[in-house]
């Protein structure tokens, strides 16, 4: 299963910058809608657009692997 680490990245950026980051603030500074940020942060997204990941990587100065994490689930199979 793919999990979002966006909440961790937000927490880290808040600590480094010494300010609170709402989804609306990130929207204004990053160009990604607050609803999209919320869906990603709460693991409610099924598809990840390249443009979205690119904007978040630039904003958080990170790589895609810092945003998304794969955690194997024994109950899952490779069948689509």
Automatic annotation (TrEMBL):
Gene3D superfamilies: lambda repressor-like DNA-binding domains. It holds the Pfam family HTH_26. CDD domains: HTH_XRE. GO terms for molecular function: DNA binding. It comes from the Bacteria. Residues 19-72 form the HTH cro/C1-type domain. InterPro entries: Cro/C1-type_HTH, Lambda_DNA-bd_dom_sf. This is XRE family transcriptional regulator. It comes from Candidatus Viridilinea halotolerans.
